[in-house]
Each structure stands twice: as C-alpha cells, then as structure tokens.
Amino acid sequence: MDVLAPLKPAELFSAKGLVVVITGGGSGIGLAIASALYQNDAAKVYILGRRLNVLQDAIHKLGSSPSAPPKSSTSTLHAISCDVTDLSSVQVAVSQIESETGYVDVLINNAGVIGPRSGPEIYKAETIHQLRDAMVTGYDEWTPTLAINTQAVIGVSASFLPLLEAANTRRGYAPGKVTGTGNPRAHDKSKLKDIGADADDDRLAHIITVASVASHMRWVSAGLAYNASKSAALHLGKMMSTFLAEWGVRSNIVCPGPYPSEMTQGKPPTYGTGQIPQGRMGSVNDVAGLFLFLVGKGGAYVNGTTQVTDGGRTGVFPATY
Ligand SMILES: NC(=O)c1ccc[n+]([C@@H]2O[C@H](COP(=O)([O-])OP(=O)(O)OC[C@H]3O[C@@H](n4cnc5c(N)ncnc54)[C@H](OP(=O)(O)O)[C@@H]3O)[C@@H](O)[C@H]2O)c1
C-alpha cells in the first residue's frame, strides 16, 4: 500500500466518466442522486420512471440550475419512460441504452412506492377487531407494492446484467464466470488508459439498491407491506452480491431514513431526538456524500454492504439492524 500516492477527494469521490441508470430518478432521492452524479462529471445518467413529463421536467430543472456543470444537461441526462414491474418495458430501456452507449457502470434500483398505510391504523386500534381490520388495510395493494419495491429489483438487475458486464469488459476485465480460490478475474489495465480512467481505478460494475430504514424496523412506520417489501429488497441486494461475485458485478444496499420526496410529502422537516437523533430529514448533501463515495474510485472495495443514512433513526426504534 503506497501511502504516499496522491489522494484527492475529487478523484476518489467522483462520478467522472460513469454511465449510470437510476430507476425512479425523476423525483425525491433518485433526483438527488442524479443531481450529484451530473454535477460530478458522470458521462451519462439515465433516469427511468413511468411519468415521462416528470423526468423531462427534472432534467430541465437540473440543467438550468446555477450549480449545473458547463456541459449541456441534455448530453448527460436522459429520460426513459419505463415501468420497472414490466420486463418488456425494462427491455426497451436496456435496448435504448445499449444502442446509445453500450454499457452501464452503475445501476441504481431506486423506484419505490409506500403501499398500504396500515401503520397508523394498527397503533390506533383499541379492540382486537379493530386490530384485525387494521392489519389488512389496503390488502389488495400488497401485490403492486411488492412488485415495485421487491420483485423489480431482480427484474431490472437481471435485465441490465449484459450491459454491466460490458462496462467491465470496457475497463479491461475478462468477461464471464470466474470461480475458485487464488483465481482473480483477469484485468488488462492498459484498457483503462484507452478510456481515460486512472491506472489505479479497478472498479467493477455495480448495482445499488435503495431499500429503507423500514427494512430493519419492527415498528410499523408507513405500513406492513412497505417494511416487508423493503426488508426483502435489502436481502435480495445481499444475495446478489453473493451470487454475482463470480460474474464480476458488485451489489450494495442503501437504507435511507426520512428524506423529502413525493412519498414523504407533508412530513415535518424536523424531528425529536427520540425519532431522529440528527433532528431533521436527510438532505441533498447526505445523498451526494454517500452516493459519490459508493460510485467513486474510493468505494471500489465496498461490496455486499448496507449503508444506513438515517440520522440515527434505526438506533432509537425497535429494529433488527
Ligand atoms: N423519502 C424517504 O423518506 C425514503 C426513506 C427510505 C427509503 N426510501 C426509498 O427511496 C426510493 C425513492 O423514493 P422517494 O422517497 O424519493 O419517493 P418518490 O419521490 O415518490 O420517488 C419514487 C420514484 O419511483 C418511481 N416509480 C414508482 N413506481 C415505479 C414503477 N412501477 N416503474 C418505474 N418507476 C416507478 C416514481 O416515478 P413514477 O411514478 O413516474 O413511475 C418516482 O419517481 C424508494 O425506493 C423509497 O422506498 C425513501
């Protein structure tokens, strides 16, 4: 380990040259991630969601902001209308990105919905019959909630695997399955120079899944379906890290506490220490700091982890973390 090597934050925590796909990138946390990557030299950021107008407005907003980089937003930011629960819709997005770019360095599974809000009803119940009814509040909404928050993590990740592998090949890694001990994936580092990457940049392609503090919470915040779907999303992110190891694709999970977004509209910006020790919702700095670390050169050795960004919330509620 050469401790005298130059260590520059702008190089360690940067999206420079990356092609990134963010599902649910038109609002809330996904838009904050897109902003951080766009402002920090990403080559292309594809934001996916069902509402094309929301995605296009988001691109306009980022591109016309004083913090926008000199490069035009329309050469970096791209909107693709896509329903993450529909494999054929996801494949249309994959095909578009394949023809425009040919590879994806980082896929961020961020799309999500809150689902049926059984939490308040459960804690309001005064009789066993009220509790019975509260537990099945919005019962029919479980299926779409699990489809978006959980199942789509696998559908979208699987669909993008060939483009994630193409990113590795572009960086000089041998493609395909590499098994066994004492047998690292072959890496032709001369390819890094060809693509303008640093010689010490050994990042492998990366899937990041946005789960939630709800993944760990025993307390029913929004609803039973939300916590269950997010717990499962987190576990799938860990399972992917294990079964994708032989394929050269990393997988990490981010668990946010409350952040401002469409999903949390109307929630208070400040909290007591018994709710969030930091006293507030998450901010764009909190998103940018974490994601630039995870996608940057300084995050290359991070794989199979859960990153909690919750101001300490998980520590003050009954939780499994
Ligand atoms: N904000 C928080 O406090 C918080 C806390 C913990 C975890 N999270 C997680 O963070 C992620 C982002 O949520 P957010 O809070 O930023 O909420 P948000 O503003 O509502 O964003 C969710 C995004 O997901 C997209 N989406 C939903 N269903 C989709 C589908 N079937 N196909 C494609 N896109 C879909 C939505 O766009 P369309 O409706 O246009 O499709 C929307 O842009 C979610 O996974 C959420 O569970 C949020």
UniProtKB/TrEMBL annotation:
The answer to whether keyword Oxidoreductase applies is: yes
Q: Which Gene3D superfamilies match?
A: NAD(P)-binding Rossmann-like Domain (3.40.50.720)
| CDD domains membership | SDR_c
GO MF entry, a single one? oxidoreductase activity
The organism sits in which domain of life? Eukaryota
SUPFAM superfamilies on file: NAD(P)-binding Rossmann-fold domains (SSF51735)
Alphabetical keyword list: NADP, Oxidoreductase
What is a single Pfam family found in this protein's UniProt entry?
Answer: adh_short_C2
Query: Which family does the entry's similarity section mention?
Result: Belongs to the short-chain dehydrogenases/reductases (SDR) family.
From the Swiss-Prot or TrEMBL record, give the protein name: NAD(P)-binding protein
Q: Which organism is it from?
A: Neocucurbitaria cava
